[in-house]
Amino acid sequence: MSLILVGLSHRTAPIELREQVDFAARDMGGAVRALAGKRTTDECVLLSTCNRVEIYAAAGDPGAARAGIGRFVAEYHGVPVERIDPHLYLQRDAAATQHLFRVASGLESLVVGEPQILGQVKAAYLTAAGEQTTGPLLNRLFHSALATGKRVRAETGIGEGAVSVSYAALSLARKIFGDLSGLSALVLGAGEMAKLTATHLQSQHVRELVVSSRTMRSAAALAGRVGGWAIPWEHMGRAIEGADIVVTATGATEPILTRDRVQAVMRTRRNRPLFIIDIAVPRDVEPGTGELEEVFLYNIDDLQSIVSESFARRTHQIEQADAIVAAEVERFVIWLRSRHAVPTVVALRQHFEDVRRAELKRLEPKLAGLGPEARARVDDVTRLIVEKLLHAPTEHLKSAPDQRTIDDWADALTRLFSLSAGELDEKERG
User: For residue range 400-426, what is the model confidence (pLDDT) as tens digits?
Assistant: First the structure.
């Protein structure tokens, strides 16, 4: 059984594709349950964020699992598999472990160190566990990944300062406008990303901060929290007319700002520039909107320059985080390799136990004169001897440095002690 990762991310796929295969806006529990129902994998966890869609799985045939997962993603979202397949990556065992640990630590995020990803990894795991699509392998993997992410944040400075996508968006606004204190800002949405963006805008002392959401109560709560004011969703157009900066961060599945709608608003603004930052996936703003005169549209992929600057400033923290991840990956991989030795270890122990019992039965006539206590003592002593004889070889086998060594040693033990293939298969199934 192999640990595999099949996925695509901002490093391999454009936003146009990522928003087409986004699971986060749908029933995540239903999605991972549907994937498990395909019988392509024995265990699975589905992680879907604005920057990635990744399936972690336990599978007997990694190649077949990769193909099956690709088909599942395509069919679930109604996207041709030929469109998805070139952007998918497959990683196994140690590489898959390292990737997840880096994801949980914020090292694979669009903005290195962003704080939301650890919670998203935890939520993905809890959803899968709740749907009973995890088992011993993924339970151990995700517990270790979450512990690694927490350790990285506790022991390094990678999570401090300007690390979130929303802050990167604000940094982009400052590059264009300079001082934001005299500007009016509109935030569309009231979720976590919208809250972070509104908080950052408040820290820049914008002249006016307006919040709008489909749920007026949510918009009012966020506006009260950041010293702004809320407007009903249906009045969004009027708010855009007076805004200098519009940040969209809703969970809508279709664009909330079309080119025609923004064009109509621009006529009333008398060509006053409008700066729109769309940090939603799927995108909230129709791509062609950025072609309008005096409209400057940026989406989540356009924040790459801010990401590069953040990466450069955090070189030391990243090195520290990488060292922690490497140590935790090594610890997990040792455990992972030991799993491959388990069938042989179990079969070997059973073989010795069978020999012990057979010898005690053969010696039964000579032991007949012993009382119950003495006979129990003989049983304990012989069992202890077997345990001591097997301790060193089984521990060496489980801690072998690589898979090839484990396979070679397991094969040698199987031949030396005539462990039958049927017995090994039975132990592996158990």
Answer: 777 678 778 878 888 888 886 444 544
Determine the pLDDT at residue 196. Answer: 84
> What contacts 137, CB < 8 A, 6 or more positions away?
1, 3, 43, 58, 336, 339
Residue type, 95: A
**How far is Cα 299 from Cα 293, in angstroms, rounded to an integer?**
18
- Residues 6 or more apart whose Cβ sits within 8 Å of residue 172: 277, 298, 302, 303, 305, 306
The one catalytic residue among 8, 21, 50, 187: 50
pTM: 0.68
Q: How confident is the model at residue 399 (pLDDT cuts 50, 70, 90)?
A: confident
Count CB neighbours of 384 within 10 A: 10
Using CA atoms, how far apart are residues 199 and 191, in angstroms rounded to an integer? 12
Q: Are 162 and 310 in contact (CB under 8 A)?
A: yes
Q: Tell me if residue 272 falls in helix, strand or coil.
A: coil
Q: Are residues 31 and 23 in contact, defined by beta-carbon separation less than 8 angstroms?
A: yes
Residue 351's SS3 state is helix
List the single range of 14-28, 57-71, 124-138 with lowest mean pLDDT: 14-28
Burial string for 74-111 (b: 16+ CB within 10 Å, else e) reads: beebeeeeeebeebbbbbebbbbbbbbbbbbbbbbbbb
Among 69, 49, 48, smallest CA distance to 5 is for 69
Determine contact, residues 245/184, Cβ cutoff 8 Å: yes
Told to judge if 50 belongs to the known catalytic residues of this protein, a careful annotator would answer: yes
Listed in sequence order, the residues at least 6 apart from 273 whose beta carbon sits closer than 8 Å to its beta carbon are 244, 294, 295, 296
